[in-house]
Write a structure and sequence with these properties.
Layout lengths: L9 H35 L11 H66 L14
């Protein structure tokens, strides 16, 4: 048979209570996440816009939530516009760099062509080395 558990000390009780509170916090965070997702869903489907029921606090929260969502959407659109402008500028810079690279490649090809043509056209100024005489 198991021996009876020793009486809990205040230290053990505090640790046990802390573990319970942490478990409750985790459950509350999950519940808050689930409820927030539901509110977002209601807002995106237009169900919050005409909310007439509930407490004054709930109606004020819904109105504030929608206002915040609208402001967030405006900021998102502005940010997307800035990003599009930055991407456009970057594309223009890339085009300019590609043009510079092509120009440099063309100059290099022309320089190599000129060197090759010059070497072919230049007369041989050195006489061929004579073969050693055989005895």
């Amino acid at each position: 048979q198991e021996a009876p558990a020793p009486p809990a000390t205040p230290e053990v009780e505090r640790v046990e209570d802390l573990l319970k509170v942490k478990a409750e916090q985790k459950a509350l965070r999950q519940q808050e996440k689930d409820l927030t997702e539901g509110v977002y869903d209601d807002a995106s489907n237009g169900r919050l816009a005409s909310m007439q029921e509930g407490s004054e606090g709930a109606r004020a929260f819904a109105a504030g939530f929608l206002k915040g969502a609208v402001e967030g959407s405006k900021k998102s659109v502005e940010a997307q516009g800035r990003l599009a402008e930055q991407l456009s500028r970057q594309a223009a810079l890339v085009d300019e760099l590609e043009h510079i690279v092509r120009s440099l490649e063309d100059l290099r090809r022309k320089d190599n062509f000129d060197k090759t043509a010059g070497a072919i056209a230049a007369p041989q100024t050195t006489a061929p080395t004579p073969l050693p005489a055989t005895p």
